Amino acid sequence: MAKSLTAGELRVEDQDTLVQKLKEAKEELFNLRFQAATGQLESHGRLRAVRREIARIYTVMRERELGIVTVEKETSDG
């Protein structure tokens, strides 16, 4: 995940996509932590960005679970 996603961008995604993005972000965080432990990490700011991205995904998922925000499906006019 090269760029950080905003909460608004995450809210329009479906649940399966959110789960996939969460999995990818957790894998990236693991790799970044591994690089940091071995002294190979070049961008320490990316650790913080990935942690925040994971928190955003969890927040959007929890909002849906509580019914605070609902997913609006686009309807086709065809």
TrEMBL record:
Instruction: State a single Pfam family of this protein.
Output: Ribosomal_L29
Matching entries from InterPro entries are given as: Ribosomal_protein_uL29, Ribosomal_uL29, Ribosomal_uL29_CS, Ribosomal_uL29_sf
Q: What keywords does the record list, in alphabetical order?
A: Ribonucleoprotein, Ribosomal protein
**Record's GO cellular component terms:** ribosome
Which family is annotated? Belongs to the universal ribosomal protein uL29 family.
Stored NCBIfam families? L29
Stated name of the protein: Large ribosomal subunit protein uL29
Q: Which gene encodes it?
A: rpmC
